[in-house]
Amino acid sequence: MTDLYDVTLVKQCLEGNQQAFEAVIDKYQGVVYNMAFRMVNDRDDAQDIAQTVFIKVYRNLNRYNSKYKFFSWLYRIAMNETVNFLKRRRPGEPVEYHHLPGDASPESLYDRSEQQDTLQQAIGELKPDYRIVIILKHLQEFSYLEISELLNIPEKTVKSRLFTARQLLREILLKKGVRFG
Fold first, then answer.
1. What pLDDT is attached to residue 26?
2. What distance in Å separates the CA atoms of residue 57 and residue 65, rounded to the nearest whole number?
3. Which tens digits make up the pLDDT trace of 12-68?
4. What is the number of alpha carbons within 13 Å of residue 105 lying toward its C-beta?
5. Is 140 exposed, middle or buried, given 0-12, 13-18 or 19+ CB atoms closer than 10 A?
């Protein structure tokens, strides 16, 4: 599925083809939901955010410029919606973390779950600007250039924020008793 496929889908959507928009949703709902979930750490909130994102995408399709990657345009909408959600969340409101079990022994699952909980909680304590670069780089595995394009900031700023975010994350983890060896 190339960018040309996305441009064709957008054109079909603008012509009123509802199935084309369903194809857009099918193609991108997983990545939008996953990004939102990693930022807000609540399945219901992530689903609400994803639904809002696709409503906004549908309403603004006529603003999409086909000279740029459709994915970047859509992902930027998703990130903005997620950050706005986090800003609306009342300060001090608890963030809940949920995990799915893997295929390992109960002991290793417990250890892994504890480590994931600690890491997710630490990431959740970062300000959204730092949280998003950690998520995009280390959990979504985007390149610096891709993050720069998605966030619409210079690549140097991405690197600087990522450096600061890692330092802050390390401090938070040390306070939680995590030792680095």
1. 95
2. 13
3. 999 999 999 999 999 999 999 999 998 888 899 999 999 999 999 999 999 999 888
4. 3
5. middle
pLDDT given at position 1: 44
pLDDT in tens, 20-36: 999 999 999 999 999 99
Q: Which of 31, 46, 107, 105 is nearest to 81 (CA)?
A: 46
**Which tokens belong to 62?**
């006529």
Buried b (16+ CB within 10 A) or exposed e, 145-179: ebbbbbbeeeeeebeebbeebeebbeebbeeeeee
SS3 60: coil
Q: Phi/psi of residue 67, each to 5°?
A: -70, -20
Cα–Cα distance for residue pair 107/101, rounded to 1 Å: 12
| pTM for the whole structure | 0.69
Which domains are delineated in the chain?
3-88 (1.10.1740.10), 106-175 (1.10.10.10)
Token representation of residue 140: 């979504």
